[in-house]
Write a structure and sequence with these properties.
- This protein is an alpha/beta fold.
- The chain has two domains: 209 residues, 3-Layer(aba) Sandwich (Rossmann fold); 209 residues, Rossmann fold, CATH 3.40.50.
- The chain is 40% helix and 16% strand.
- The strands form three sheets. It has an eight-stranded mixed β-sheet, sandwiched between helices. A five-stranded parallel β-sheet has the order 2-1-3-4-7, with helices on both faces. It has a two-stranded antiparallel sheet with strand order 5-6.
- α4 links the parallel β3 and β4.
- α1 crosses α16 and α8 crosses α14.
- It is globular, with a radius of gyration of 23 Å.
C-alpha cells in the first residue's frame, strides 16, 4: 500500500518524519512518499523519502498567519501558483490508490480532502488550551473566540468528520475530548514533539545521605532558547543576554550581601545548526563574557559536541552548543525561551520557561501571548529582559509553584512515544496493518 505524507512547516516536517519512521518499522510498512507544502522539507531527507511535487521556500518562511504583510510577500512570491501545482501533484498521486497522512493545520487537511483518497490528520496547529482549560473558558477572551464551541471552526470539523477521514490525532487530551462531541474519530495518543528527548533515570536522591547538600551546592542551570530562524534568532539572543546579565548581577549581589548560599550559575545555550555562532559570540563579548576552555569551566556536563564553546563572566559560565540540544533541555532547571517547538518541549519535561516578546516574524508579542495560553502556568511572560531575574528568584523560593508547573507541563504535552502510538493506530484504521 502507498502512503503520501503532507506537512506544512519545518516543525510539522519533523513530526511527520517521526511518525514515518515508526510506519517504516511496521511489519506491513507502506511505500512512503511526501510533499512538504511549506519550505523544502529537508527533514524528509534523513528517511530518503521521495518528494512527489514542487517545493519552494516562501519569503515568510511559513509564518503567513502572523501578519498581513507576510501573506502579501508570499502572494507576490508565487504562493497561489505553488499551491495549485502542489494540489495537482496530490491529485495525480491519489489516482494510483493509497492513503494520505496530513500533518499540520487546515492546509494539508484540505489538500487531503481534495485528493479524493482516504486520509488521517495529525492536528498540530490548534489546541483547546488557546481558549479554555480544564476549568472552563479563559478569562478576558473575546466572545467570538471559539464561537462555534471549539477552537476548530465548523468547516475544519467537517473535514475531520468526513467519511474518508479515518483518524484524527490532536495534540493534547483536552482537544481530543472536545472534538469527540462532533463524532470525529479523535484519538488521544500524545504529542510527537516529546519523542526522542531521552529522559534520564538517576537513582532516587533519598538513597544518598548527602543529597540535600549536593543539591544546594550544584549549579543553577538555565537553558537559553533563542529560536532557529535568521535573523530573528540574533535579535532574540540580544534580549536573552540582557536577561542573563540581570540574573548574573542579582545572584552576585546576593552573594556579596552574605545571603544564604547562592548557587553558581550555568547557562546552556541550545543553538540551531543553521545559526552563525560568531554572531552570538560577538553579542557575548560585547557584554563582558570571556571565552574559556570547556575543561577549565568544570561543569561536569557530558557534552558530546566537540565544537561547544564556554564563556565566563563574574559568577557565571555560559556554554554555546549546536549539537547537544537534548542535553540543554534535560539539564536546565528553567529556560529563557523565545522559540516555538523548543519551548513546548522544555515545558513538556515539567519545567518552567520565561518568555520575552520579540519583534518577529515568528516570536511576536501576539505569538508569545498565545503561547502562554497554550502552555498555561508553565510559561511566564515578562515584557522586558530586566524582569527575568525576579521571576527566577520567585521560582527558587516557591516549591508549590514548581510542582504546579511540573504537573501542568506534562499534562499539556503528553508522554513520549506518541509517534509509535499514532503509527500503529493509523495502520489499523486504514487497514494497512
Amino acid at each position: 500500500m502507498q502512503l503520501l505524507c503532507l506537512s506544512n512547516g519545518h516543525g510539522e516536517d519533523i513530526i511527520a518524519v517521526r511518525i514515518l519512521e515508526e510506519l517504516q518499522a511496521h511489519p506491513n510498512a507502506p511505500e512512503v512518499a511526501a510533499l512538504p507544502l511549506v519550505g523544502e522539507g529537508r527533514a524528509y531527507s534523513q528517511l530518503e523519502v521521495p518528494i512527489i511535487g514542487t517545493v519552494r521556500t516562501m519569503p515568510s518562511g511559513g509564518f503567513v498567519y502572523m501578519e498581513g504583510r507576510q501573506l502579501l510577500r508570499d502572494l507576490r512570491g508565487g504562493l497561489l501558483q505553488l499551491a495549485w501545482t502542489q494540489l495537482k501533484a496530490v491529485r495525480r498521486w491519489s489516482q494510483k490508490g493509497g492513503v494520505i497522512l496530513a500533518v499540520g493545520d487546515i492546509v494539508p487537511l484540505l489538500f487531503a480532502w481534495f485528493s479524493g483518497a482516504p486520509y488521517a490528520f495529525v492536528a498540530t496547529a490548534k489546541s483547546e488550551y488557546y481558549i479554555r482549560d480544564e476549568s472552563g473558558r479563559l478569562p478576558n477572551r473575546p466572545r467570538w473566540d471559539g464561537w462555534s464551541g471549539s477552537v476548530y471552526l465548523p468547516w475544519e470539523r467537517w473535514l475531520m468528520s468526513h467519511p474518508r477521514c479515518q483518524a484524527v490525532f490532536p495534540r493534547d487530551s483536552l482537544t481530543t475530548e472536545i472534538l469527540k462531541h462532533w463524532s470525529i474519530p479523535a484519538f488521544d495518543f500524545g504529542n510527537p514533539m516529546m519523542d526522542k528527548i531521552e529522559l534520564e533515570h538517576p537513582e532516587p536522591k533519598f538513597y544518598d545521605p548527602d543529597a540535600e547538600v549536593k543539591e544546594m551546592q550544584r549549579s543553577l542551570i538555565i537553558t537559553l532558547l533563542p529560536g532557529s530562524r535568521e535573523p530573528e534568532a540574533y535579535e532574540n539572543w540580544q534580549q536573552i543576554i540582557l536577561a542573563v546579565a540581570g540574573i548574573v548581577d542579582t545572584f552576585q549581589e546576593q552573594s556579596t550581601l552574605s545571603s544564604p548560599a547562592t548557587p553558581p550559575l550555568l547557562f546552556l545555550s541550545a543553538i540551531a545548526p543553521a545559526l552563525n555562532p560568531e554572531t552570538l559570540r560577538e553579542t557575548l563579548e560585547s557584554q563582558g563574557w570571556v571565552e574559556e576552555s570547556i575543561e577549565s569551566t568544570a561543569t561536569n556536563l557530558k557534552l558530546s559536541d566537540p565544537t561547544a564553546v564556554a564563556f565566563t563572566h563574574k559568577n557565571a559560565t555560559l556554554i554555546l552548543t549546536q549539537d547537544d540540544y537534548n542535553l540543554c533541555l534535560l539539564q536546565g532547571d528553567c529556560a529563557i525561551a523565545m522559540a516555538g517547538t523548543a519551548t513546548e518541549q522544555f515545558i513538556g519535561l515539567g519545567k518552567p520557561a520565561i518568555a520575552i516578546p520579540g519583534n518577529g516574524p515568528q516570536f511576536t508579542p501576539a505569538f508569545a501571548e498565545a503561547q502562554t495560553r497554550l502552555l498555561g502556568p508553565s510559561l511566564i511572560l515578562v515584557q522586558q529582559p530586566e524582569g527575568v531575574a525576579g521571576i527566577v528568584e520567585q521560582l527558587l523560593h516557591d516549591p508549590d509553584w514548581l510542582q504546579l508547573i511540573g504537573e501542568n507541563g506534562r499534562r499539556r504535552m503528553g508522554e513520549p512515544g506518541a509517534a509509535r502510538r499514532i503509527a500503529n493506530c493509523f495502520m489499523e484504521r486504514t487497514q494497512l496493518g
